[in-house]
Amino acid sequence: MCGIFGWVRFGDGLAAGEIECARAATKTMVHRGPDGFGEWTDRHVYLGHQRLSILDLTDAAAQPFLGGDRYVLAFNGEIYNYIELRQELEREGRTFHTDSDTEVLLHVLAAWGVNGLRRLDGMFAGALHDRETGEHLLFRDPLGQKPLYVHIYDGGVVFGSELRSLLSLPQFRWQLDRQAFRQFLAHSYYPRRSTPIAGVEKLLPGCLLRIGRQTAHHERWWESTPGADPLDLSFAEARSEFEKLFDRSCRISMRSDVPVGVFLSGGIDSTLVLDSCHDAAPAVQAFSVSMAEADYDESAKAAVAAAQIGVAARSVLLDEGALHASFTELMEVLDEPHGDPGYVNTYFLAQACRPHITVALAGDGADELFAGYAPFAGVAAASVLRHLPAPVAAAARAAAGFLPATDGYLGLQFKALAYLQGFPSHPSNRHGLWLSSLPPEALSRLLPKAGDAFFDPMRPGGAFDVLEADGRPASGIQKMLRYYQNVFLPEFVCHHTDRAAMLHSLEVRAPFLSAPLIEFANRLPDSVKAQGSVLKRMLRESLRERGYPAQIVDQRKQGFTFPLARWLKRRLRGLVDELVATGDLEHLTGGEISMPALRRITELHMSGRRNYYRIIYNLIVFRAWRQRYANLDFQ
Hints:
With 635 residues, the protein is an alpha/beta fold. It has 26 helices and 19 strands. It has three domains: 2-220, Aminohydrolase, N-terminal nucleophile (Ntn) domain (Glutamine Phosphoribosylpyrophosphate, subunit 1, domain 1), CATH 3.60.20; 235-371 and 475-553, HUPs (Rossmann fold), CATH 3.40.50; 387-424 and 427-464 and 564-634, no CATH class. Helix 6 packs antiparallel against helix 18 (515-521), helix 6 packs across helix 20 (537-545) and helix 10 (342-353) crosses helix 17.
């Protein structure tokens, strides 16, 4: 787990001033790798690296890593199956000089080329330079656990693990992307390739970028589609195979030369991770977040799970006072506007456990592989409701508005309105609509310059249509899994885990996101994952077979979040008041926001008639981030 920065310069190559700026850009990510700084450069290429030492702590394993006279590698992440790959490469006659996964990765790419990426089990984003051919290869792991930002321009390519590294370069006149901002407000994050900055994109998960002497083009090196190439297994056979793959993933994910622990919420996913990790390493430590608010507090479940497994769990308290005191600091270190409250939870948890461990394992990915989110329970009804005439759907939404609004986790009105805003809609928009921060008509009022067509649920190509159709017949659950895996997981879940933890130089690994486990899960029938209202059926049965009580096995989904809707009315109210009263929001958003519409939204939320915390928090976060980059203009 590290931070990388690179600059590939076409034409005459890098000037001395550009190298100095590249060096400074690398050092903006010292939090990602406080254990060492390294760089390599020639006439056309700069590679910089901030190291967090996890495997082989010696200087011999430092990066950029040189492979003879030909290859130079810098990467961020971990290759969990590096021991098995090394043994295979040694049988082919290759020799090694370190005990690092970095050297193994370099040999994998040197020996097997791009096909070698398919042999990797881990999380990674990296760059390989071939001094012989001049080709530069950028690559990112299958489901986007590790980030990589890229800017391709006429003179070359710059890239980095965090957006802040690119924004530090004075050679570029960066501008804010107006359409991407509109999508951010709808989704609460920047989906797929998009970023806040025009011309800067994220390398998509499972993809690579080949950079030649004057060109750059994208390729896909990995893909796994839910429902493709299905397996014919009984439930018992499927569960048995899952247990083997999952236990193996937890075991190899714990490989480290520094202390390792587990994030434990007491939920199904993290309990499974801790259970398997404890079998492999009985001394493993567990860490959790407790809440002062009883309806959001999972500490009792975490205590039950920890006691069942036989480990002691450390806990950090997150309350209004702690968040209020730290909010300015949280926003000042945010790399990209991100509206997931889970970022806050992860930040506090990482801060608390970093003095004890350098690597943590988490349950990320389980919901996206095994159908764990509430919308999966509504797939069957969607096949009927999608035929509703627009007036009937509008009447249903109006009726749902009379349900009691609460600021608890996924209250009845909140769920009903979120679900119904998906009807009627074009199929390409439905998943985005279900997860949208506001109904489309409310977004049109809030962002009038976007035009009604951009938020029109019946028109493809707008704010909610962010995933290309693959043209393959698929069930409703399979389509939803594909959306969650390709859109929500990389840039909502993995994004907040990576950024929040790395601010404390903590590496977080996700055993559910092992490549073999992903591919196996995507070949399983729907009934193994969801059956009626029972979600994550496979995982629940795995816990039941391991002897866990109903309190753990049969619990409902509780997101990794905090009572944000409630706290915005109390200790955080000042943030809402600033949003609507200071007068700077119209300027900071390039004139996009209708202040009367925003005041109406905040009034409805504060009075308890609607739960609009998501759009309010999105704007609070964007405003704080934008104030740090006040020199940027919208394109």
